[in-house]
Sequence to fold (199 residues):
Amino acid sequence: MIALSREYPSVFGQPVIHAVDPAIFGYRYFTHCMACDFCGDSCCSYGVDIDVENVARIEALGDDFEAHVGVPRAQWFTKQRWTDPEFPGGAQARTRVKGGACVFLDRKQRGCKIHSYCIANGIDYHRLKPLVSILFPLTFEGGVLVASGELEDRSLVCADQGPNVYDGLRGELAWYFGEDFVAEVDAIRVSHAAGQAKA
Ligand code: SF4
Fold:
């Protein structure tokens, strides 16, 4: 792990990143998800962890969103909540799985129905789509930015294709953690690459 010069809280207060795993500069994935013709949206098969504040924002949406999802709102999230200080609000729920995929997966047109609702209504999708979904296949563990387990064990169907995962998600990281954050991680990548070249 490589420590950062300071802690970088997300725009939602949590998570707070203080270090990065340099492996994120090496792992690759397809990146352009809606252009992928071979994954079958498999990464949305299991549902996703979602912070309780995001659950509240989604549950506050009206009947038009419920109609867009096509699943009754009572079936969107697990009733159980898990304490997790790394998530905004200090706790998380999980989106439910129905018929072999997340309830929010668009099975006809592909993609995420939270995302498509945001686009159709002029809403910044970062406000409603789960943070874990947007950053996938990067994630955070104990304040360290790391690759998701599916990249590490190569179980992600599009692993080893496309750009490296940091480049693929750099813009999303900048949105959550700021331009100073990605500038510092950019510099870490350069020095890490130089160190590897010398070795
Ligand atoms: S919330 Fe959207 S992106 Fe995340 S797992 Fe569900 S369908 Fe996929």
User: Anything to note?
Assistant: Residues 44, 48, 95, 102, 104-105, 112, 114, 130, 133 surround iron/sulfur cluster (CB under 6 Å). Residues 1-29+137-199 form one domain. The chain is about 35% helix and 15% strand.
